[in-house]
Amino acid sequence: MPPTPILVFRELKRHGLLLLNDSDLPSLCGITVGQRVRGSWWAHPGAQKIFSAYGAFEDHPDVLIVKLVSGKLTYIHRRLWPQVVAIGCARDPWQMHGLPAAARKLLADVDFAPVEPGRAMSKAADELVARLLVYSSQYHSESGAHRRRVESWRHWSDRTRFSTDGLSVAAARITLEQVLASLNDAYGGKGRLPWQK
Question: Which of 44, 143, 157, 169 is exposed most, by the fewest CB atoms within 10 A?
Fold first, then answer.
């Protein structure tokens, strides 16, 4: 692994989570280019370097990528995976209340097996991702096109052989809230978790 991704991973391990980009909180973009990146990182002079670091973590065995903090892509170190998975499996009221019919149908389908939602189901998939009800990943199809796959956290856990070891949802939420509060305090951030509306 080149030096920049090693530095980013060291910071991820230290904090427990990093955002892809944020103007205040620690982020892959900021660490990679040595300064806060405001706006789209694609327009930054260091975009190629950022893209390279981004690619290094797509399949990293100790990194989980979900939309966790403020609806943004967040890199989660393995030590916090049990918390994310416990919450993802919970089906708490904040996750289920007001869930649109199309999203409920997609969730039922995903509970049965992973789904590759097309454009017609894109909004429903986005809703499930925002509520941490599914794990979403992207891959290149045989034709080279980007495809999206959503799967239940139970399926993801079976596929990755990962266990939460009976962690309670309440304990999981407290841990993630404390990690984020610590980062917000240290960096003057305003990050929020999906249930902190």
Answer: 143
